[in-house]
């Protein structure tokens, strides 16, 4: 079942890629109203992700599609069992998309404040709910011998899964603050740097608590895996770098932190896909939930061909939109409004 293991690794990489790329989008969405007090500053913050957010969100679709195609039993059990969480997740994603599109449609401060609030709420819901779902995979939910979820809504919200969601929210906040500081100038950059310095210690404490808890929940003791240790070093480096105002390296550190934290969850989960709190014999695993060998072979060929092309295209996109954005670009139009 080497191909099944390969697809588990690729699925983990896709989820990590989603949080690396969409993570700072979510952070910007949560922070855009706080990094600046005027309309021009808020528009500058939003425009740092304007050309990028929808492309980054595709990683979520691809990650879910990889689960569906490579591990259909995993997809079916998780998405049906976590149905309330998935509905709220869709609400959050819709609020974000609509807010970007509608915010500037009416010349009204009240209108913009309303969509600013929905953008903040939607951006908060997404990492929180995905964290709860991913945490539930490892902590365990009631699953019977037919690989069917047999619990209720309360079973989805364990202490560990909720803390996983909170940790991912904090990581996205720090990642987003570092990104705004990297991509803007003037008062917006200063506001983002200040927020980053305030968020960084809380994020570090959350990561330092979450990684041993994850390893312990997996039944492997409290010392984190190698990736976990990398995450610890990266988050401590991020704290130091945001305080020393090294925006570029701070963003690199938050990138490594969020990637290794997400990957650590999957490393501790393997070879399981979903833990059954009813009976460990009912766990969904890489081996009992994978698609047939032929399907995995075809998918592997497609992934080998197209995945590098997607990476090249997104790299080119980031290169094109690499320059900093100033609130001065929006001052005249904001005053006119």
SSE layout:
Elements: H1 2-31, H2 39-47, H3 53-70, H4 72-81, H5 83-102, H6 109-139, H7 159-183, H8 186-217, H9 226-243, H10 247-269, E1 272-274, E2 284-285, H11 293-320, H12 328-336
Antiparallel strand pairs: 1-2
Helix pairs in contact: 1-3, 1-6, 1-7, 1-10, 2-12, 3-4, 5-6, 6-7, 7-8, 7-10, 8-9, 8-10, 9-10
How would you describe this protein?
The chain is mainly alpha-helical and 337 residues long. The chain is 75% helix and 1% strand. It is built from twelve helices and two strands, in the order H-H-H-H-H-H-H-H-H-H-E-E-H-H. Helix 1 packs antiparallel against helix 3, helix 7 packs antiparallel against helix 8 and helix 7 packs antiparallel against helix 10. The C terminus is likely disordered. Belongs to the cytochrome ubiquinol oxidase subunit 2 family. Its main location: membrane. One of its GO terms (biological process) is aerobic electron transport chain.
Please count the beta strands (DSSP E, at least 2 residues each). 2
Number of helices: 12
Structural class: mainly alpha
Strand content: under 5%
What is the H/E string?
HHHHHHHHHHEEHH
Distance separating the two termini: 61 Å
The pLDDT mean sits at 92
Give the helix level as a range of percent: over 70%
Numbering strands along the chain, what is their spatial order in the largest sheet?
Answer: 1-2
Give me the Rg, rounded: 20 Å
Shape: globular
Biggest sheet overview: 2 strands, antiparallel
Unreliable spans: 333-337
